[in-house]
């Protein structure tokens, strides 16, 4: 069986280049987005250091309590 769907890429950029990338088949769920954020946060620094600010649009999965808690725990 083969999957005939879309592959999606999500990336985080900084002034210095790409911080983190994730490519998946299917949809980005809150759980998959949380995995992406966890990988991204490993490449970030506490505020006010370089790469210390996360900017997201108002997509529903960006507003999850889980995502907010993950970011706040790292002081980003």
TrEMBL record:
One annotated GO molecular function: nucleic acid binding
Domain Tc1-like transposase DDE: 4-73
Pfam families: DDE_3
Protein known as: Tc1-like transposase DDE domain-containing protein
């Amino acid at each position: 069986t083969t999957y005939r769907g879309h592959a999606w890429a999500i990336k985080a950029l900084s002034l210095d280049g790409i911080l983190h990338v994730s490519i998946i088949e299917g949809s980005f769920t809150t759980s998959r987005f949380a995995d992406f954020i966890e990988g991204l946060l490993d490449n970030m620094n506490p505020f006010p250091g370089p790469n210390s600010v996360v900017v997201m649009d108002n997509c529903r999965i960006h507003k999850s309590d889980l995502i907010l808690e993950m970011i706040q725990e790292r002081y980003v």
